[in-house]
Amino acid sequence: MSDEDDIILSELDDDELVQQMHDDLYDGLQDEIVEGVEILLNRGWTPYNVLTKALVEGMTIVGIDFRDGILFVPEVLMAANAMKAGMGILRPLLAETGAPRVGKIVIGTVKGDIHDIGKNLVSMMLEGAGFEVIDLGINNPVENYLEALEEHQPDILGMSALLTTTMPYMKVVVDAMVEKGVRDDYIVMVGGAPLNEAFGESVGADAYCRDAAVAVETAKALIAKRREVGAA
After folding, report:
1. Which of 22, 99, 150, 175 could form a disulfide with 48 if both were Cys (CB 3.0 to 4.6 A apart)?
2. Strands 156-160 and 187-191: what pairing?
3. What is the DSSP string of 85-125?
4. In the listed set 51, 79, 97, which residue is the last one of a domain according to the structure?
């Protein structure tokens, strides 16, 4: 870490600092990310620009290397936690300035399942991509999902499962949405280790995402498509 200590963040110009923040994010350095965010804000950067240019672009690099097998879950979680530390400063400022959001997603692990590393990773990566994320946590019965949809009116509902025994519960949730007549109001994305494309189709989801990087790409693409249709 010695060479890290030689770099004084405040002495870097904007471009160098953003580059350094991408590296620090990649290495999961929370304190450095917080410091970088504060320096850019003090230099008059808008919270939205700090979010997109320093943090989102940095997490995009992390996402690509995760997808390509260069980085693994522990490293991505470290990067995501560094991102989260930076977001802690930016979130209230973004809310004040009414910065544009890419979209809104309600996400949670289904009833009977208490696994959340994958879901947390997806949540953090989505937040890193500029989404507003409402995370319902683990072990969610149908009612939790339906209440959250009604309360938050998101673009997307995301469901996660790690056990083959809890996977079928996703269909219970989708069926309940159909019954209430709200299925078409939302994009439904599912994910988790035992799932696959065919399973996603069988429960009536719009998309199955095999990992967090794919989830971000898919969420962006589906929202863009839906907005095009809405505008047409």
Report:
1. 99
2. parallel
3. HHHHHHHHHHHHHT---SEEEEEEEBTT----HHHHHHHHH
4. 97
CATH number at residue 147: 3.40.50.280
> Quick one: how far is CA 56 from the chain centroid?
10
Cα-based torsion angle of the residue sequence 153, 169, 193, 198 in order, rounded to the nearest 10 degrees: -90
How many structural domains does the chain have? 2
CATH code: domain of residue 25: 1.10.1240.10
Indicate if 225 and 174 belong to the same structural domain. yes
Write the Ramachandran bin of 28: left for phi over 0, alpha for psi from -120 to 50, otherwise beta.
Answer: left
For the record, the structure tokens of 92 come out as 């209230």
pLDDT tens digits along 41-93: 999 999 989 988 999 889 889 888 988 899 988 998 899 899 989 989 998 88
Verify that 224 and 117 share a domain, yes or no: yes
Strand duo 103-109 + 156-160: pairing: parallel
Note whether 219 and 103 are within 8 A (CB): yes
> Are 172 and 204 in contact, with CB atoms under 8 Å apart?
no
How far apart, in whole angstroms, are the C-alpha atoms of residue 116 and residue 136?
11
Structure letter (DSSP) for residue 56: I
- Coil/strand/helix, residue 209: strand
Q: Tens digit of pLDDT for each residue in 82-131?
A: 998 998 999 888 878 777 778 999 999 999 999 888 898 899 888 877 78
Whether residue 2 is contained in a domain is answered as no
Q: Are 64 and 22 in contact (CB under 8 A)?
A: no
Q: Which domain holds residue 134?
A: 103-231
